[in-house]
Design a protein that fits this description.
five-stranded antiparallel β-sheet; 2 domains; about 180 residues; four-stranded antiparallel β-sheet; about 10% helix; Immunoglobulin-like; 1 helix; mainly beta
Length: about 180
């Protein structure tokens, strides 16, 4: 029996050390990021959050006729109790993985493609210990977007006062959490 226990421990330790020494790459060869030996802890406060983009009418906010500006986002299924004590940052990239702003912080009512933006407008929200959500506005972003909660669906609705990009230019939206 002691040989069996020692054998199992050797197998477990050998398997564990080979996992820890492994590496993997992400991306294409020319632009790959390699991650090597180390411990990775990936955790989320909520396993299922859905984000829907909201687009304005075609031609509105300086969008070309037939296209729509990104005028807001709706976050659904966010468990504010599980995410209590967290700050959530929402940002976006285009199809080429370049960061793009979600909204403008200046008072210019044109898209960034027509009049360049100097900001990378992202959404920052904070969830207190009781599960209440509040916006965390950087000093320049005050009044750049509004947030409300639909009491019937528990959706959080963000409306951008000065949209920055076309809705179809969004490649991916990222949600990052950190402790308050």
């Amino acid at each position: 029996m002691p040989r069996f226990v020692v054998g199992v421990l050797v197998l477990i330790l050998t398997g564990f050390s080979s996992i820890m020494a492994g590496s993997f790459s992400l991306g294409q060869d020319a632009q790959s990021n390699e991650f090597g030996q180390g411990v990775y802890n990936i955790a989320a406060c909520d396993d299922y959050v859905r984000i829907n983009i909201t687009s304005g009418e075609t031609g509105q906010f300086g969008a070309p006729e037939g296209l729509s500006a990104l005028t807001g986002l709706t976050i659904s299924s966010l468990d504010t109790i599980a995410c209590a004590g967290k700050q959530i940052t929402i940002s976006a990239v285009d199809q080429q993985n370049q960061r793009i702003p979600l909204y403008r912080i200046d008072s210019i009512n044109q898209l960034c493609s027509d009049n360049p933006c100097s900001n990378m407008g992202e959404i920052k929200i904070s969830i207190d210990g009781n599960g209440n959500l509040t916006s965390v506005f950087p000093i320049d972003d005050i009044d750049s977007y509004s947030v409300s909660k639909n009491a019937e669906t528990a959706d959080f609705i963000f409306v951008f006062k000065n949209p920055a990009v076309l809705a179809n230019s969004i490649g991916r939206i990222f949600i990052q959490t950190s402790s308050i």
